[in-house]
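Suppose you are handed a protein chain with no further information: no name, no annotation, nothing but its sequence. What can you learn? This example shows the usual starting point.
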Amino acid sequence: VQLVESGGGLAQPGGSLRLSCAASGFTFSNYVISWVRQAPGKGLEWVSGIYTVDTISYYTDSVKGRFTISRDNAKNTVYLQMNSLKPEDTALYYCTKSSTSNADYGEYDYWGQGTQVTVSS
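A reasonable first move is to predict its three-dimensional structure. Written in C-alpha coordinates, the prediction is:
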Protein backbone atom coordinates (compact mmCIF):
# COMPACT_ATOMS: atom_id res chain seq x y z
CA VAL A 1 0.00 0.00 0.00
CA GLN A 2 1.30 3.41 -0.91
CA LEU A 3 -0.15 6.90 -0.56
CA VAL A 4 1.77 9.77 -2.14
CA GLU A 5 0.75 13.37 -1.54
CA SER A 6 1.68 16.29 -3.73
CA GLY A 7 0.64 19.86 -4.39
CA GLY A 8 1.70 21.58 -1.22
CA GLY A 9 3.64 24.81 -1.17
CA LEU A 10 3.51 28.45 -0.19
CA ALA A 11 0.32 30.43 -0.67
CA GLN A 12 -0.76 33.89 0.35
CA PRO A 13 -3.74 34.40 2.62
CA GLY A 14 -6.84 34.17 0.47
CA GLY A 15 -5.04 32.05 -2.07
CA SER A 16 -5.60 28.49 -3.24
CA LEU A 17 -3.78 25.20 -3.47
CA ARG A 18 -4.86 21.75 -4.65
CA LEU A 19 -3.44 18.71 -2.95
CA SER A 20 -3.38 15.29 -4.59
CA CYS A 21 -3.09 11.85 -3.06
CA ALA A 22 -2.13 9.06 -5.42
CA ALA A 23 -2.88 5.60 -4.02
CA SER A 24 -1.73 2.13 -4.97
CA GLY A 25 -1.57 -1.39 -3.61
CA PHE A 26 -5.21 -1.82 -2.55
CA THR A 27 -8.72 -1.67 -4.02
CA PHE A 28 -8.97 2.10 -3.92
CA SER A 29 -12.71 2.36 -4.59
CA ASN A 30 -13.50 0.31 -1.46
CA TYR A 31 -11.95 2.64 1.09
CA VAL A 32 -12.65 6.00 2.65
CA ILE A 33 -9.73 8.37 2.15
CA SER A 34 -9.19 11.24 4.54
CA TRP A 35 -6.91 14.21 4.94
CA VAL A 36 -5.33 14.85 8.32
CA ARG A 37 -3.06 17.77 9.13
CA GLN A 38 -0.53 18.68 11.77
CA ALA A 39 0.31 22.31 12.44
CA PRO A 40 3.70 23.22 13.90
CA GLY A 41 3.82 22.29 17.57
CA LYS A 42 0.29 20.87 17.56
CA GLY A 43 -1.38 17.49 17.37
CA LEU A 44 -3.06 15.77 14.48
CA GLU A 45 -6.30 17.28 13.20
CA TRP A 46 -8.71 15.43 10.91
CA VAL A 47 -9.68 17.75 8.03
CA SER A 48 -11.89 15.95 5.54
CA GLY A 49 -12.94 12.53 4.30
CA ILE A 50 -14.66 11.08 1.28
CA TYR A 51 -16.57 7.86 0.98
CA THR A 52 -16.24 5.31 -1.75
CA VAL A 53 -18.65 4.90 -4.64
CA ASP A 54 -21.23 7.47 -3.50
CA THR A 55 -18.44 9.98 -2.75
CA ILE A 56 -20.21 11.49 0.24
CA SER A 57 -17.79 13.96 1.77
CA TYR A 58 -17.47 15.61 5.15
CA TYR A 59 -15.33 18.32 6.72
CA THR A 60 -14.15 19.74 9.98
CA ASP A 61 -15.95 22.98 10.78
CA SER A 62 -12.92 25.21 10.28
CA VAL A 63 -12.63 24.34 6.58
CA LYS A 64 -16.28 24.02 5.58
CA GLY A 65 -17.06 26.24 2.62
CA ARG A 66 -13.38 26.68 1.80
CA PHE A 67 -12.06 23.17 1.13
CA THR A 68 -13.50 20.61 -1.26
CA ILE A 69 -12.50 16.96 -1.32
CA SER A 70 -13.04 14.79 -4.37
CA ARG A 71 -11.89 11.46 -5.72
CA ASP A 72 -11.28 9.87 -9.09
CA ASN A 73 -11.57 6.13 -8.65
CA ALA A 74 -10.34 5.54 -12.22
CA LYS A 75 -7.08 7.30 -11.34
CA ASN A 76 -6.85 6.07 -7.72
CA THR A 77 -6.49 9.68 -6.64
CA VAL A 78 -8.07 11.93 -4.04
CA TYR A 79 -7.87 15.70 -4.25
CA LEU A 80 -8.25 18.47 -1.71
CA GLN A 81 -9.02 21.84 -3.24
CA MET A 82 -8.21 24.52 -0.69
CA ASN A 83 -9.53 28.02 -1.29
CA SER A 84 -9.55 31.16 0.83
CA LEU A 85 -6.51 29.90 2.67
CA LYS A 86 -5.71 31.29 6.11
CA PRO A 87 -2.43 31.34 8.04
CA GLU A 88 -3.97 28.85 10.47
CA ASP A 89 -4.19 26.33 7.61
CA THR A 90 -0.41 26.08 7.70
CA ALA A 91 0.41 22.46 8.42
CA LEU A 92 1.78 19.20 7.12
CA TYR A 93 -1.10 17.52 5.31
CA TYR A 94 -1.35 13.74 5.29
CA CYS A 95 -3.48 11.48 3.15
CA THR A 96 -4.80 8.45 5.04
CA LYS A 97 -6.64 5.22 4.26
CA SER A 98 -9.42 3.94 6.47
CA SER A 99 -8.62 0.58 7.99
CA THR A 100 -12.16 -0.74 7.33
CA SER A 101 -13.55 -1.09 3.83
CA ASN A 102 -16.62 1.03 3.00
CA ALA A 103 -16.64 2.62 6.46
CA ASP A 104 -14.86 5.26 8.51
CA TYR A 105 -14.43 4.63 12.22
CA GLY A 106 -11.62 7.14 12.57
CA GLU A 107 -8.98 4.45 12.31
CA TYR A 108 -6.39 4.71 9.59
CA ASP A 109 -3.89 2.00 8.74
CA TYR A 110 -1.79 3.71 6.08
CA TRP A 111 -0.50 7.25 5.80
CA GLY A 112 1.39 9.15 3.15
CA GLN A 113 4.60 11.03 3.84
CA GLY A 114 2.79 14.38 3.97
CA THR A 115 2.94 17.56 1.94
CA GLN A 116 3.68 20.93 3.53
CA VAL A 117 1.24 23.80 3.16
CA THR A 118 2.38 27.22 4.29
CA VAL A 119 0.06 30.21 4.19
CA SER A 120 1.88 33.47 4.67
CA SER A 121 2.19 36.91 3.16
